[in-house]
Automatic annotation (TrEMBL):
Protein name (Swiss-Prot/TrEMBL): GDSL-type esterase/lipase family protein
Protein family per UniProt: Belongs to the 'GDSL' lipolytic enzyme family. Platelet-activating factor acetylhydrolase IB beta/gamma subunits subfamily.
SUPFAM superfamilies per UniProt: SGNH hydrolase
Source organism of this protein record: Rhizosaccharibacter radicis
Signal peptide: 1-25
InterPro entries: SGNH_hydro, SGNH_hydro_sf
Length: 260
């Protein structure tokens, strides 16, 4: 009797696991689905404001999430003083900031399909996307890569003459799962850049955030917050280091001089 009961329990558990696995496998990949955030007031206001900034003379676009949106911050703390760095590197380059806090690949796709590519034809897109996929929407490296591929394909389809400077997802201090998926995703992005070098230049700036083989928490602003958050967003100083590291590529693509 006891053996039969244990066998029945094991069979039921196996059936439940198989059912969960099947349902999970059949679940659509949210990373490739255009999803709106227009129900969020601040996001809707920012989207509408950015629509008004889509002028024909735009030559350079930073496209991404809160790390990109932070370029608009002006302190007052030194670690949050991003605007002077933006002005130094991009102030004379007809540049546009299309960064939205909390966006994942699915939200960027929605933006691109709802006006952000309609009236601009920049020479260069700088993309820094994917960190939030490992957060609230919780897609893994392969799923996130599919979303990135869709974004890059859309940029090339709509502006075939433009170049894309594809930045790898930055290191963070969140979890071992995030670390491993960041590593896997960046390897996939490097391969994509190699295979599509006609319009993509891939750059991994992770080394700017490492010290003695470990992620350096001092390169991030989040520990300065009250209450502190896990290190994810670069300080203004670290973001300036990113701008300096990619500047040779930016100047080469735009055909102007090195900005320092």
């Amino acid at each position: 009797m006891k053996r039969n009961l244990l066998s029945a329990i094991a069979a039921a558990a196996a059936l439940a696991a198989a059912s969960w696995s099947s349902a999970h496998a059949a679940r659509p990949n949210i990373a490739v689905q255009p999803i709106s955030r227009m129900s969020e007031g601040w996001w809707r206001d920012r989207f509408q404001q950015k629509q008004r900034e889509l002028r024909p003379d735009v030559q350079l676009v930073w496209l991404g999430d809160s790390i990109t949106q932070n370029w608009e911050r002006e302190g007052p703390e030194p670690w949050r003083m991003f605007r002077p760095v933006w002005n130094r590197f991009y102030g004379d380059r007809h540049a546009l900031n299309l960064g939205f806090k909390g966006d994942s690949t699915c939200h960027v796709l929605w933006r691109l399909e709802h006006g952000e590519l309609d009236t601009i034809h920049p020479r260069l897109f700088i993309t820094l996307i994917g960190a939030n996929n490992f957060g609230h929407i919780h897609t893994d490296a392969a799923q996130t890569f599919a979303g990135m591929q869709k974004i890059l394909g859309l940029l090339h389809e709509r502006d075939p003459q433009a170049r894309v400077l594809l930045l790898g997802v930055l290191p963070s201090i969140r979890s071992a799962w995030v670390d491993e998926n960041t590593r896997q995703l960046n390897a996939m992005l490097a391969g994509y850049g190699h295979d599509h070098s006609d319009f993509v230049t891939y750059r991994d700036v992770s080394g700017l955030f490492m010290r003695d083989g470990r992620v350096d928490a001092g390169r991030f602003l989040d520990p300065h917050l009250t209450p502190p958050d896990p290190p994810l967003h670069p300080t203004a100083e670290a973001q300036a280091a990113i701008a300096a590291a990619i500047e040779p590529d930016v100047a080469r693509i735009l055909g102007d001089h090195i900005h320092r």
